[in-house]
Structure formats: structure tokens, C-alpha cells
Amino acid sequence: MKGLFVAAMLLASPVAAQENPLQNSATWQDLKESVLGLASDVPQDIGVLDMEAPIRAHEAAIVPIRLTQPHGAPAVEAVTLVIDENPAPVAAEYTFGPAMMPLDFEFRVRVDSYSDVRAIANVGNGSQVMAGRFVKASGGCSAPAGKDMAAVRETMGQMRWRAGQEDGRQIGTLMIRHPNFSGLQRDQLTLLTIPAHFIDRLDVRQGEDLLFALQAGISISEDPVFRFAYQPNGQPIRVHVEDTDGNVWDQEFAAGG
């Protein structure tokens, strides 16, 4: 499980000041209406929601994304994550509970070519706001898997949880072993295409109270890691995971990690 902790530390590393604003490509002009049903542009307001992402990704298959809000910002109820140039642009749909506000949420994605990465957030009363960055990366969706198939079968579904205080807030880190095969990768031994097989449902709660839920596509990274600030209620952390092959995993962790 050492690799999961290394991944978590990468997520926790400071991100340099952002110099990669959205490019608002022709692809987005098509996507916003045909895929997302948006009749007009969604405003950007870093006073409500901001995104951190690397200008040039070190590894296209594990690009760190961080969504943040300043104190006093309206609560984010849901976020649709879109990676414009990925084969399946809608990468994830998140729902957040009140204990996650103000939002400080990190995860990793695959980026297949130079692309805008954008988060369209619902902030109540039908209002939406967008945050995003332009990321230079290529080949993330077809990058070779990080382990062989035997290791995949042995470790798939294993989870780790830890929690602690950082800068006056409770920070939780959830790590899940899963290959999240995109359907665009090849087995390095047989050279045959590996069928798509990924986590498509994730539900994280403390007791009965929702922290966050995820509906995902092929763009969430292998062995996903989620790092987030939350208001603890003293109840155990309960995690429910489903994947596209019908596997289901449930695990409960002590509140303190």
C-alpha cells in the first residue's frame, strides 16, 4: 500500500501560482450545449470556486486537480468535471454534503491531449459557476497500467483512510486500489486491448451524513486518491464503491483514521 501513500503526498504538495487560464476552445462551444445542455456560458468567479492544476502535467495519467473555495463562499452542492479533449469529456459528477464546505477537494485525472479542464458547479437557487485551467498533457487515457493483471486481481478494492489536522481544518485522505482501465490501454504482455473496467460509483459518509458522492467515467486515475477538508461529526467513515464489472466494496474506518 506504500504507493497509495506516495500518491496522497503528491496530492498534498503545494501548487504554484496558476498561469494557465481556460482557453475556451471550439470543442467547448460544442460540448456545453450538446453534452451539458448549457444554452450560454457559465461565469467564472474565483470568489466562489477556483481550480488548481499543473500548467504542464508531469504524468498525463495522474494529473492532480484541486477545487477550493474561500471562507464565506456559497455552498457547492454539485460539480461536473469536464476535460474537453478527452474521449469521454464528462470525467466525473460529484455531489457534496454540508460538512465539506467551504470546498477544498483534491483528486487525480487522466488527460489525453492539451485540454481545458473545467468544473461546473451548482451553488444553489439554480445558480452555476465555472472554474478551470488549461493543462498540457497527452496520452493519459491510453498510458500503460502501472501494475500487471495478477497484481490487479490481488489488490483491487483495498482501501486506506487517514485523517488529521492541517491549517486548522480536518483533512481526510481516501485511497482505493483499482486499475480504472479506460478501455484504451493495452496489456503489456499480450498487446491486446484491456476492456474498460473502472469505478463508476463512490459514496463517502461519516455515519449517515454525506461527505461526497461520485459518478465517474474513464478519466479518473488508476488507484484513485481523494484528499479533502471536512467538518468531523465524530462518526465512523463509511465508504461504498461500485465498479463497471459489478464488484461492490464496503468498508468502515474509525473517525480519526
Automatic annotation (TrEMBL):
Q: Which Gene3D superfamilies match?
A: Immunoglobulins (2.60.40.10), SoxY domain (2.60.40.2470)
**Protein's name in the database:** Quinoprotein dehydrogenase-associated SoxYZ-like carrier
Pfam families assigned = SoxY (PF13501), SoxZ (PF08770)
Ranges in a coiled coil: none
Q: Which residues form the signal peptide?
A: 1-17
**Keyword Signal found:** yes
Q: Which InterPro entries match?
A: Fuse-rel_SoxYZ, Ig-like_fold, Ig_E-set, SoxY, SoxY_sf, SoxZ_dom
- Residue ranges of the Ig-like SoxY domain? 44-141
- Residue ranges annotated for the Sulphur oxidation protein SoxZ domain, each copy included: 173-253
Which residue ranges does UniProt annotate as crossing the membrane? none
- What keywords are assigned to this protein? Signal
Q: Which organism is it from?
A: Paracoccus benzoatiresistens
